[in-house]
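Practice record 12: protein with zinc ion.
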Amino acid sequence: MLSTNIATIFLNSLSEIPAKLATIPPFLILVAPRRTRSQRSYRYIIPDRQIALDNKIVQLVCLKCQLTNHNSNSDNGFYSCESCFARESPSLITPETDAKIVCYCSTCLSDLHRDLGKELINHNARRIPVEQHKLNLFAVLCIEVAHYVAFVKCQKQQEQHEWLFFDSTSDRIHNEKNIPLVDRVPDFEKWIETAGKDNYFFPDLDELR
Ligand SMILES: [Zn+2]
Ligand SMILES: [Zn+2]
């Protein structure tokens, strides 16, 4: 195939295993697939600025009854309640999965809250918004033999960031020493946002190769 994007590679590899995420990964490293050692599966891979993690990808497991969000009777959602967890944690059976998202199904949460009386006011149960988890692109690294280039997201000011380009071998001195290069890429996000959207994009890249 000519091209794909990293979200598609990630989702396809999970469904092929098949596997769900037991937690929201703080970092995710994706390696471009290859058909053979020397043959890439895709000619081009477009980096997505964001990958959304929805209910199909992340597995939630009720700490009390082990119901998961992939059971058909789990439509009422999953909830976190720090007060319940603090009260319960010594007596909880460790789930057989390695789920890290602390949550209760709606039935177990109702059971826990039923007899609390006035104390319930201290329990701030929140529905777990799995649909809202997003992984943001942090870097793209391309390696060819000993030469590598990287696009890296760097902090500029407090809330702002910018993309830098690093080239390990931008130039050579006397064919002995590599001269690396670091440069700003102000249009990087716009560039990947529009990548592949018009018919000339890939033919133009082909010509540059
Ligand atoms: Zn439960
Ligand atoms: Zn509670």
